[in-house]
Amino acid sequence: MHRGNIVRDLRALIRPIIESRETPAGRVFDWVIQSMILVSVVSYTIETMPERSEAFYAVLRSIEISLVAIFTCEYFVRLWVEKRPWKFIFSFYGLVDLISILPFYLTMGGDLRALRAIRMLKILRYSRAMNRFRLAFIEIRAELAVFGLASLLVIYLAAVGIYIFENPAQPEIFRSVFDGIWWAVATLTTVGYGDVYPITTGGKTFTFLVLAVGLGVVAVPSALLASSLSRVRDKD
Amino acid sequence: MHRGNIVRDLRALIRPIIESRETPAGRVFDWVIQSMILVSVVSYTIETMPERSEAFYAVLRSIEISLVAIFTCEYFVRLWVEKRPWKFIFSFYGLVDLISILPFYLTMGGDLRALRAIRMLKILRYSRAMNRFRLAFIEIRAELAVFGLASLLVIYLAAVGIYIFENPAQPEIFRSVFDGIWWAVATLTTVGYGDVYPITTGGKTFTFLVLAVGLGVVAVPSALLASSLSRVRDKD
Amino acid sequence: MHRGNIVRDLRALIRPIIESRETPAGRVFDWVIQSMILVSVVSYTIETMPERSEAFYAVLRSIEISLVAIFTCEYFVRLWVEKRPWKFIFSFYGLVDLISILPFYLTMGGDLRALRAIRMLKILRYSRAMNRFRLAFIEIRAELAVFGLASLLVIYLAAVGIYIFENPAQPEIFRSVFDGIWWAVATLTTVGYGDVYPITTGGKTFTFLVLAVGLGVVAVPSALLASSLSRVRDKD
Amino acid sequence: MHRGNIVRDLRALIRPIIESRETPAGRVFDWVIQSMILVSVVSYTIETMPERSEAFYAVLRSIEISLVAIFTCEYFVRLWVEKRPWKFIFSFYGLVDLISILPFYLTMGGDLRALRAIRMLKILRYSRAMNRFRLAFIEIRAELAVFGLASLLVIYLAAVGIYIFENPAQPEIFRSVFDGIWWAVATLTTVGYGDVYPITTGGKTFTFLVLAVGLGVVAVPSALLASSLSRVRDKD
Q1: Hey, of C182, C183, C211, which one would you mutate to test binding to chain B, going by the most B CBs within 10 A of its CB?
Q2: Locate the Ion transport domain: which residues (chains A, B, C, D) (predicted)?
């Protein structure tokens, strides 16, 4: 019972450090974890570069092992101080924390390198932007569904139309309606890579009509999100 | 007369299922038809892929025959329960329903495959977005006409200008003012595929001036539609 | 004196037909001239196509001669009914009307074909959009000057930067700061043709920074014009 | 003491010319310096062109020497009339003025040509736009930080995703996550040069999802700047 008290006291001591950003110690802890996430992200990004030397790879490997150790400690400490550990395990951030370390143990650091990018999501915990996006999203959920569906409809009809016009002229480029969808996405978002584009007069005229009608439709969901985000700022 | 009563009772029973979304049976009917439309759309999209096997084609063919049978039943049931059948036949949705099945019977499922994409429009009946677009469009009809014409004017003048500058330097690319129009559409919507672009100093300077003036003009109609759509949300 | 009276009466009779859109005769006259302008524009556009036959060219040639005859009559009738003929000659629309016909007489329909595109501007006389653009432009004149200059500054600094980064790596593409300006215009308007783009890490990082800062700046003038145009609608 | 008086009087005479735009002499001085800056910018731009003759280079060289002389005089006069010279030297405009002339003396006009582009920044002193950008920036500083970070997060996650999808199919194009970042910047700003784009079905589907979510996020910072700039106009 005496020992239990010590543990209980320790937990009461550590909890505010980990869960709150109000105390100096809490801010230091947050900064440390955020720096680790950044190191992890930069290290992963560099590791994907093809022309790295063997020595450099060894350095990256040690960084990775240290980071996994730190993130594992962080995970168990969070689990320990949490009042309802099971709720934490299945919460969004609990799962992100778990997936950040699990692939390393499963493969002994082998082939699941890419999953390390998920660690980036750990930073969301510290991001005030996240809450705004959540509020903005809830506010315009119904709108987004309606206009998102309208955008999908416009994209699909544009895809079928361009396929009908261009498939006979460019059977290797517009092989199926799927290629049409790719063209419609690149065109209506105005990205326009230039890998697929109409060459027939019919296809070009159709593109003109699609842009005249479609730009206004496809632009609505992202305009809604942008304006909702700036409205949310007053409530934040 | 007794038999006529049964028919009348049956019609009174079926009508709310088909025409209303308030009753559970009506909602089920709507979900079934919507699923069929989706199956039809996906099936058509897959059918356009070039590398399908003969067996796979047979499956798609059976799906198509079943769907045409279902949509034909749906069409006649709608016609039968409708109080003014002729009005339904020549209404927008009546025509869409008819064109969704007619090509199959005319060609015994032959060469008019592409017309099956029109079935996508059947989904509009269930889309709340449709009504908003209609209201938004009515609200800004006069505006759209004025600024749509202004956009056409800017596009045409840009097309003539770039043709004059670039035709001597790239006679194979800017063959006529029509190529200029295609360039103007791709440029002023900022899609910029990169299949046609100016190479002379005069043409590049002209492009700069056209973008400086034209972006503001061509952006107006789609900005009007987007802002009108978000205004309409309050009235919906 | 008696004859002078007839002329005066005739002028009084014709003037409202030509200058007003309120009377039925005035509306008919306007529609005729607008149709002629459209025929002229379409005829010019078709004439630029390279693969026209000799017979087709003869038809276009007759149309052109007829149109010049009609526009010449229109010009002299306008001059005649006008109370202050000299003011009309040097007014914007008077000059447009003159340039629409003059090249034909100077070269007997020869090499100044391209100037026929100017006839398109005759349609502005009938366009309600024109007045709105004029009002919108006056309203934001000072703003446009300030932010237009800011955009030019951003474009120039981006051009110098990309030239410094990319010239050593791509001396044939980024030959001088002028090529950098062309790149900056295509990039900051998000057209992105893909004829010039950075390939060095420095140039790509610089592009990222330029886009982060520049998109907000370059978008301002056209956003100002678009929002001013929709404000003006209430006053029109 | 008498001589000191003359100097003091001269300074009192020259100061309003240099520091104020209210007096006619002040306006003339400003116009002269602005013209010199413009000449310098145009001269630098032309100098980067590869096909210049030796004679032409000599002319540009003389212009450069004259301009450095004038800007040096301007710098020392500003230093002399300034009440707190040290504050001027380390102010933004003081440093810009110094960097505009220093490279010439350090290298006797040699290899630091590119630094001459910095002279463009001298024009900011005369730009009313500058103040607005400063005010707009202060107003939305916190917003910009939050949404700028969110944009960076979206760009990085998009980069990792496209690298995972496209690296096996295009190892020469998507060599590392850095190429993915370049692709994400070009795509989410809708520039779309077309030098890098996905070719696998997975990569294209991922692009569609990234655009659906990301356009709304990445557009926010520049939309914030644009709307803040038009708000600031009322306070200016």
Answers
A1: C182
A2: 27-234
CATH fold match for the domains A2-126 and A136-235:
no
Cβ–Cβ pairs < 8 A, chains A and C = 5
Model pLDDT for residues C34-71, shown as the tens digit of each residue: 899 889 888 888 888 877 678 888 888 889 889 989 99
- Residue C52's φ and ψ, nearest 5 degrees, are -90, 150
Alpha carbon of residue C142 to chain centroid: 22
> Is residue C216 within 8 angstroms of chain A, CB to CB?
no
Note the pLDDT tens digit of each residue in A196-218: 999 999 999 999 999 988 888 88
Taking contacts as CB-CB distances below 8 angstroms, the residues of chain C near B192 are 186, 190-194
- Give the DSSP H or E segment for A20: none
Task: Please state, in angstroms and rounded to a whole number, the distance separating the CA atoms of residues C63 and B13.
Answer: 66
Q: Please name the residue that has the structure tokens 């058509």.
A: B44
Residue A23 burial (C-beta neighbours within 10 Å; 0-12, 13-18, 19+): exposed
Q: Are B222 and C226 spatial neighbours (Cβ–Cβ below 8 Å)?
A: no
Residues 6+ apart with CB under 8 A from B52: B46, B60
Cα–Cα distances (Å) from A169 to A2, A197, B71, B186, in that order, read 84, 11, 33, 20
pLDDT digits (tens, 9 = 90+) for D12-69: 888 888 877 778 888 888 888 889 988 988 888 888 887 767 888 888 888 888 998 9
C-chain residues near A194 (CB < 8 A): 193-194
Q: Cβ D120–C224 below 8 Å, yes or no? A: no
Q: Which one is predicted more confidently, A10 or A3?
A: A10
Residue C131 pLDDT: 76
Enumerate the residues of chain D whose CB falls inside 8 A of the CB of residue C167: 48
User: Given an 8 Å threshold on Cβ–Cβ distance, is C146 in contact with D128?
Assistant: yes
* D131 at C interface, C-beta within 8 A: no
Structural class in CATH, domain D2-126: mainly alpha
Note whether D146 contacts A128, CB cutoff 8 Å: yes
* Burial class of residue C98 in the structure, from the number of CB atoms within 10 Å of its CB (0-12 exposed, 13-18 middle, 19+ buried): middle
Set of chain B residues whose Cβ sits within 8 Å of the Cβ of C44: 160, 177
What is the assigned CATH class of domain B136-231? mainly alpha
Tell me which residue of B64, B66, B78, B59 sits closest to B11, measured CA to CA: B78
Residue A157 C-beta-side C-alpha neighbours within 13 Å: 21
Assigned CATH topology for domain D136-235: Helix Hairpins (1.10.287)
**pTM for the model:** 0.89
Does ipTM come in above 0.90?
no
Give the separation between CA A22 and CA D102, rounded to whole angstroms.
49
CB contact B178 to A (< 8 Å): yes
With cut-offs at 50, 70 and 90, classify the pLDDT of residue C233.
low
How many C-beta neighbours within 10 Å does residue B11 have? Answer: 14
Q: Do C190 and B190 touch (CB under 8 A)?
A: yes
C-alpha distance from D235 to closest chain A C-alpha (Å) = 21
Would you call D112 an interface residue with chain C, using a CB distance cutoff of 8 Å? no
Query: b/e per residue, C39-56, with b = 16+ CB within 10 A?
Result: ebbebbbbbbeeeeeeee
Name the residue among D177, D207, D220 with its Cβ closest to that of A226: D220
